[in-house]
Specification:
Layout lengths: L1 H11 L17 E8 L5 H17 L3 E2 L2 E10 L3 H14 L4 E3 L4 H11 L6 E3 L7 H4 L6 E2 L12 H7 L5 E7 L2 H17 L2 E8 L7 H6 L6 E5 L2 H13 L6 E3 L6 H4 L13 E4 L8 H13 L11 H19 L5 H13 L2 E3 L2 E5 L5 E12 L5 E12 L7 H6 L15
Parallel strand pairs: 1-3, 1-4, 4-5, 5-6, 7-8, 7-9, 9-10
Antiparallel strand pairs: 2-3, 11-14, 12-13, 13-14, 14-15
Length: about 425
């Protein structure tokens, strides 16, 4: 699948500047760099992120503001160092004018910091969802059109407590910034509703052997929250089933994403009935969502994509759509430090497949969030069925800024589990 994906990228991307025509900020081809995790435990996520980006480019005829696009794909492996090396190559060697990406949480924090050293380049986040990326020392030239991991958790804790009746939960999560942010949002929701988180277990990204973690799972809780993704999620499910695990499960957003629900083997069947939440729901009957799903499906042969776009395809699609819309708005003009282009991004109301997205004063998305449950469709594939939708979810999760700041930043143990914040 990876070879086929890269082949399709070559067919879509312009690979060389037109002879004798140099980009001058207004005419000629525009160089756009892409950061995506095409190595390591999140490889399948990065591949689908690139599919989403190319779905948007295909719809635009591979032009932005009337200018041909030269696309340069740079692989990362979820580590901040790999993202930083990739960004430096794109900006300092390849001379890109816009960067779309990265994908993973701690990568995003690193790229926010790097963007401050490259003020002539505009950075549009791909999918990374750590809270600190935009909430702490935001960068003037870094824009994020996806909500963060805590925003992706809104509505889930209340649902599992009040509708499922699960009052005690233990959590298992990958030990890095994005999952801290995910559990931050879940804990606020769940604990305010009256729930108790009895234990928080952490594993490194790229864990192969979950034996000790599975053995340590408490058996006196109502459910286990799983903040895993990619290869980690699949490895855990395989080993959990082999160990005879049968607890109620709650999915972090990428635990039940299409990248896991479409994985090989039967372990994913354990996720049927698992509640989760995030910025999309596969079965939503909204016309814009259904149109996007068909565009994604039409863009790639069935054996080179998932049955439905994953979260990563959607977020990269939205980021690329924002770029395309604003490039059209300014007629492809990136002169004057890209001031007009960035002003457009700042004030854009993006009519995305997942609903309207706007940016706050930190250039962070305010958007809808969906509570869902994993179901098996008639064709045997798994999908996230929509339960409910919460609109206009802000990064402060509905709290006044002072109250939100008093909670502190996401970490292994923060926030504390209490009924009011």
């Amino acid at each position: 699948m990876k070879r086929a994906l890269m082949g399709s990228l070559s067919a879509i991307a312009l690979t060389a500047m037109t002879t004798g025509v140099m980009a001058d900020g207004h005419s000629g081809p525009i160089k756009i760099g892409v950061l995506a995790t095409l190595e390591g435990t999140y490889t399948v996520l990065g591949e689908d992120g690139v599919r989403g980006l190319n779905t948007a480019l295909i719809g635009a005829g591979n032009k932005a503001g009337g200018r041909e696009i030269e696309l340069i794909i740079q692989s990362t492996d979820t580590s901040p160092d790999s993202a930083l090396r990739g960004a430096r190559k794109l900006v300092e060697q390849d001379g890109v004018e816009i960067v779309i990406g990265p994908l993973s949480g701690s990568e995003g924090i690193a790229i926010r910091d790097y963007s401050k050293t490259a003020p002539g380049v505009t950075f549009i986040n791909g999918a990374s969802g750590a809270m600190e990326t935009t909430y702490v020392t935001p960068s003037d030239n870094f824009f994020r059109f996806n909500t963060d991991g805590a925003q992706w958790s809104v509505g889930l804790g209340d649902y599992v407590f009040n509708e499922k009746g699960w009052e005690t939960v233990a959590t298992v999560g990958e030990d890095y910034s994005f999952v801290y942010t995910q559990i931050f949002g879940f804990a606020k929701d769940f604990c305010e509703a009256g729930g108790e988180i009895t234990e928080r277990l952490w594993v490194p990204l790229g864990t192969k052997d979950f034996g000790s973690i599975i053995a340590a799972l408490p058996d006196d809780v109502d459910a286990i929250y799983l903040g895993l993704g990619g290869g980690d999620a699949v490895n855990f499910l395989n080993q959990y089933q082999q160990a005879g695990g049968d607890a109620n499960l709650i999915g972090g957003t990428i635990m039940v994403d299409g990248t896991v629900l479409s994985s090989e083997g039967n372990a994913k069947q354990a996720l049927i009935g698992t509640p989760s939440s995030g910025p999309q729901a596969d079965t939503w009957d909204n016309e814009n969502w259904q149109t996007f799903v068909k565009s994604y499906q039409d863009a790639f042969p069935p054996d080179q994509r998932f049955p439905s776009p994953s979260l990563l395809a959607t977020t990269y699609y939205n980021a690329t759509s924002a770029m395309l819309q604003c490039m059209d708005d300014v007629g492809g003009d990136l002169t004057d430090g890209q001031a007009n282009f960035r002003n457009c991004l700042t004030n854009l109301e993006l009519e995305a497949p997942t609903g309207t997205i706007t940016l706050d004063e930190n250039r962070q998305a305010v958007a809808s969030n969906f509570v869902s449950e994993v179901v098996e469709l008639e064709d045997g594939t798994l999908a996230n069925a929509m339960i409910s939708k919460v609109d206009n979810v802000s990064q402060t999760l509905g709290l006044e800024k002072a109250a939100f700041d008093a909670m502190g930043l996401p970490s292994r143990e923060n926030p504390e589990c209490k009924t009011s914040y």
